Predict the structure.
Amino acid sequence: MGKNHQKLLNNLEERRKSAGFTQEELSIKAEVSRKSINAIENGVYVPSTVLALKISKTLNCTVEELFQLPSKL
């Protein structure tokens, strides 16, 4: 976990909206707070592996479809 992690790109907001979930609905299904979903979407919080897997399962996609490292580290 980390704050302001500049080396992780994420598509969570786009995937969540495409799936028709609000932040609150996704947070309930992934068993995390809505604030955590918001913080991940805004790049303030990097989710744990377990949370990333829960979110990807809920959104029916892979972790790699949600989170990527930039081409240049």
